[in-house]
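## retry 2 of 3
previous attempt timed out at serialization; input unchanged, resubmitting
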Amino acid sequence: MSTPAAVAAKAESVDRDGVPDGFQPPSFYRPEVLQGGYTRLTVSLPSDGLEVVHKALVAAMGAPLKLLYVQLTDRDAGTQLPKPRQLVAIELSAERVADVLTRFRALVYEDGRHQIWIRGPMGEQIVLEEIGMLYAYPDDLLFRDVLEAHGVQEGSGETLAERDYIRVRFDAENDAQEGELIEELHLVEWAG
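## retry succeeded, writing output
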């Protein structure tokens, strides 16, 4: 798996007192069947592999794409939002989404104030959570092939999402990027 320059993790596992406990997310994916018979792949990755794998999964989807930006924390106010703010853009080209993911990479891949959901024309979607977990819907051979081509094998183990205590990273330097990303994609509030 090729990796970009050193990156800060969106979140890290800590003990009850908030001290990092040394847990490093392993690299693997596992299939899951959800209520209602829906399928997905849960993807665990160390922070240095997140950007490359996420972009590859998104690139594997057809266009036009929809992007849902779910703001969980208002970093300026210093509070978690009581109800996440959902902003959406539709009819996006794959090139435009790839460009935005690259230009706003610090916000997207190193900051835990949000989730990003990207949906393709057939209902397939990739979810990047605030803690750096990835979910690919549905469990499809296309997504499995992309993961395996990037060295991510089917397996099992504990993910960051299953840890008792997690500290999410917020970086003040990304405040401006968040506003620029919203403006760049013409994201609009969605009551959803």
